[in-house]
Write a structure and sequence with these properties.
This protein is mostly beta strands. It is built from no helices and 13 strands. The strands form two sheets. Strands 1, 2, 3, 4, 5, 6, 7, 12 and 13 form a nine-stranded mixed beta sheet that branches. A four-stranded antiparallel beta sheet has the order 8-9-10-11, with no helix packed on it.
Length: 207
């Protein structure tokens, strides 16, 4: 009947949660990424995700996620409904009416088959901690299942992915996405350098 019976915020009351676990999803939070295209340096641009409001789906309150300048089209688009549950972030698949995991800091979830696109070719490399604004946050680093042993991306508690907020492990060979900064109410919380990863720079080829 349209009456809310549960909110994603209620999951913070789970007895297995750490009480000071920093949420990734917060009203007023935004994430700026840059699209990097090795084959076409002119196709390098910044885009921004942000949360604005919420929506009720099947009795659960989801945060509404928007994206500004997706695909370099200079417009704001509604992207997805997302919610955070017990150290895990879910995205709602409209066509299948199912939730898929896009982040999880629970050990058992790292090998789950119920993940969003981009997960099958990468594995957890290590779990470490970094300090962000005086607070200790857990970071999970990832590397390919085969080939190079190089770290290709990571997640940080309360922040999200170094690669893309929604498709957080959807790495590609010639195209890449890299976090620029994460902000809350216009104040910078985090930048790519805080991950401790080398920055990707595209240098145009000379004629």
């Amino acid at each position: 009947n349209g009456k809310e019976i549960f909110s994603y915020k209620d999951f913070s009351k789970d007895k297995d949660d750490v009480t000071d676990y920093p949420l990734i999803l917060e009203q007023g939070k935004s994430w700026t990424y840059k699209n990097i295209d090795y084959s076409n340096p002119d196709n390098c641009y910044e885009y921004r995700y942000f949360i604005d409001g919420d929506t009720l789906i099947r009795g659960i309150t989801y945060a509404k996620l928007y994206c500004e300048n997706a695909d370099n089209k200079h417009r704001v688009q509604y992207k997805d409904a997302v919610y955070e549950a017990g150290k895990t972030v879910f995205i709602y698949n409209k066509s299948e009416h199912e939730n898929y995991i896009i982040y999880s800091f629970n050990e058992n979830d790292l090998h789950s088959s119920n993940y969003d696109i981009g997960w099958s070719n990468f594995k957890k490399s290590s779990r470490e901690t970094i300090t962000i604004n005086g607070e200790t946050r857990e970071v999970i680093y990832f590397k390919p299942n085969y080939g190079s042993d190089e770290i290709v991306g990571c997640w940080a508690e309360g922040i999200g992915s170094s690669v893309d907020l929604v498709h957080s492990k959807n790495f590609q060979a010639r195209k890449y996405k890299q976090l620029v900064r994460c902000e809350l109410n216009g104040k910078e919380l985090f930048s790519y350098e805080d991950f401790g990863l080398p920055e990707i720079v595209v240098v145009p080829e000379r004629d």
